[in-house]
Amino acid sequence: MVSDRDYYCGLDATIDVIAGKWKALILWELDGGTRRFGALRRGVSGISEKMLIQQLRELEADGLVHREAYPEIPPRVEYSLTELGASLNAALLPLCEWGERNMDGIRATRSRQSA
Fold first, then answer.
1. Is the Cβ–Cβ distance between 55 and 22 less than 8 Å?
2. SS (H, E, C) 19-34
3. Which pLDDT score, from 0 to 100, does residue 3 have?
4. Rounded CA separation 48/108 (Å)
5. Could you say which architecture CATH assigns to the domain 10-114?
6. Contact 44, 37 (CB under 8 A)
7. Measured between alpha carbons, how far is 104 from 85 in angstroms, rounded to an integer?
8. Which of 44, 63, 86, 91 lies 20 to 30 A from 57 at CA?
9. Contacts with 5 (C-beta within 8 Å, 6 or more apart), sequence order
10. What is the pTM (predicted TM-score) of this model?
11. CA–CA gap between residue 99 and residue 84 (Å, rounded)
12. Residue 34's closest CA among 68, 71, 80, 65?
């Protein structure tokens, strides 16, 4: 989401750009290359059409995603990462790796807390 607020630090700016459950997952899905809307929706399990549209618009406004609309019938729209979006994905990679290493422990801890 485009923001005119002052940031406390770089992490604050980064979190502002990827805030919410879906944006990082959309960026991650686009890391595999250009995707059409339907492929994105299938690739980001659990996201609604309305939420995907909203999140893509915000990512596009922030300069992370490029939207290409083709004047065809039926209309075709493709989404891809910009250079900025690709650089953010590179920064997210260590977080993904951390999550992979610790996923079982996180699940176990949360399972014990909810019991």
1. yes
2. CCCCHHHHHHHHCCCC
3. 56
4. 28
5. Orthogonal Bundle (1.10)
6. no
7. 29
8. 91
9. 16
10. 0.86
11. 23
12. 80
Measuring CA to CA, how many Å separate 66 from each of 10, 13, 94, 96, 104? 23, 20, 24, 23, 35
Three-state DSSP string of 44-100: CCCCCHHHHHHHHHHHHHCCCEEEEEECCCCCEEEEEECHHHHHHHHHHHHHHHHHH
- pLDDT tens track for 79-92: 999 999 999 999 99
> 63 is written with which tokens?
């300069």
- Rounded Cα distance between 63 and 20, Å, is 17
Query: Residue 88 CB: number of other CB atoms within 10 A?
Result: 20
List of residues 6+ apart from 59 with CB closer than 8 A: 23, 26, 27, 65, 85
Q: Which pair of structure tokens corresponds to residue 57?
A: 């618009």
Delimit the domains of the chain by residue range: 10-114
